[in-house]
Amino acid sequence: MTKAEHGGSDFVITHTFDAPRELVFQSWVEPERLAQWWGPVGFELSVLALELKPGGVFHYGMRADNGYEMWGKLTYQVIEAPEKIVSILSFADREGNVVPHPVSATWPLQAHNTMTLSEQDGKTTMTLRSVPHEASELEHATFKEGHESMKQGFGATFAQLAKYLARVQ
């Protein structure tokens, strides 16, 4: 189950998984697990770097069946296993340099993301809050206009995570 809310340009999405918190957390931080579910449907993930520490980077590439490639980067700010990851997310190039959104010149270069995990009765609720980071008013407005698309994209990605969790328990 996924639900999204937004106030201002903040984007918040929540999903409850039928899996323990430790497994959900591991699925976010272990390359072999990430490769099973991360990214848009139909893309294959390549983990170029994953340094799970404040200041560390998760640099990844995604390749579609038609050959289209794109890269992204998370720079970790806070890691409190297994309950919280705070990071700065951006599109990147193959070398890990921050680059603009591939189709939107006014999309923020970076977003500040806070993911929290809480467990109750063997189910884990994940909440992801994303806010434009060091962004102009126009970039905030573009980000807010993209909330519905983000809801669909994250919803599909979290559905892939749910399928992965069901397979590995």
From TrEMBL:
Q: Which Pfam families match?
A: AHSA1
Extract the CDD domains matched here.
Answer: SRPBCC_CalC_Aha1-like
Annotated InterPro entries:
ASHA1/2-like_C, START-like_dom_sf
* Gene3D superfamilies noted in UniProt: 3.30.530.20
**Residues in Activator of Hsp90 ATPase homologue 1/2-like C-terminal domain copies:** 18-165
Q: Which family does it belong to?
A: Belongs to the AHA1 family.
* Protein name in UniProt: Putative conserved protein YndB, AHSA1/START domain
